From TrEMBL:
It is an enzyme of class 1 (oxidoreductase). Gene3D superfamilies: 3.10.20.30, Nucleotide-binding domain of ferredoxin-NADP reductase (FNR) module, Translation factors. Residues 130-236 form the FAD-binding FR-type domain. It comes from Sphaerochaeta globosa (strain ATCC BAA-1886 / DSM 22777 / Buddy) (Spirochaeta sp. (strain Buddy)). This is Ferredoxin--NAD(+) reductase. PANTHER family: NA(+)-TRANSLOCATING NADH-QUINONE REDUCTASE SUBUNIT (PTHR43644), NAD(P)H-FLAVIN REDUCTASE (PTHR43644:SF1). The keyword Flavoprotein applies. Residues 34-127 form the 2Fe-2S ferredoxin-type domain.
Amino acid sequence: MVLTLLISIAIISLISVFLALLMVIADATIGNYGIVKISINNGTKELQVKGGQPLLKALNQEGVFIPSACGGRGSCGLCKVRVVEGGGEYLPTELPFISEEEKKQQIRLSCQFKVKTDVSIAIPEELFSVREFNTVVERIRDLTHDIKEVTLRLKEGDTITPKAGQYIQFEVPEYENSEESVYRAYSIASPPDDNTRVELEIRLVPNGICTTYVHKFLKEGDKVTINGPYGDFYLRTSERNIICIAGGSGMAPIKSILLDMKDKGIKRNTMYFFGARSKRDLFLLDEMHELQQAMPNFKFVPALSEPAPEDKWEGEIGLITDVVRRMVKDGPNSEAYLCGSPGMINACMKVLTELNVAPENIFYDKFS
């Protein structure tokens, strides 16, 4: 019986080795697509890249950066491009993010679509102005028990010119939790006029590749590569009232917008609702109160959903959506800026719609 078992194990092991060898051979022969050409925007730019890799990675390596909040894991759906020629069939991993209308336009998810033959793609012209920057970590400070503020200083002579509310992609190098470098998207918290620095607010996510690296490994003086800026989340020019809603590290882009409004002397009526569970989850309260003093038409409304007895909280209590519902009085003449988890965004959009804020006047970054 034992001899039979050992023979069976040996046979299974030999079969496994044989299959692995076949996979290596297949990858080196069938999977060797050679050099392929990527034509961008009717030949405005042409790239020669190694075939067989995801389009997102191939473009990044050539200095063409496509926004991707998840770093190419296929979970955010942001890295869409139009593949004009050479697309082939859709992959199952693309379909959850592609609508029927987008299929008709040949929109693909660039982190999943692999470049195996020559392709022609179309991307927004503004992405050609996205740059890679080499930075140094100037400061790291704790904002809460699970949120760190990271200030990056650009290389001398470099400047970055984002719109308030936009984001960058942060490159995490290979380390013990990641076998390769990856990108993650983070909103810029600093105002645009501070064009030699980028301030980020990064919340620790359990088992998160980037957030673990930032919270447990990153040190002041370390070098960090970023690229950007990206995004359509920025203050629109109008006379409408402004409603800002955020939670956790969603504070970052709202802070940037508010500081920019102060610098530019924008005096529109503005209410900023910030939701947290308990007092230990609140941060930058002094900065927000200073903005209230400097901006007479601005009101900051923090709210706790589960204040602890020791918090001795005298402010608003309840889910942030309930607070918004109670306090917003003129929805039809308002526009809203939201940043937080997908669940929070969806709940806020529902409430804002009930308050008659027009859907086209609701702007958000839904970072998961």
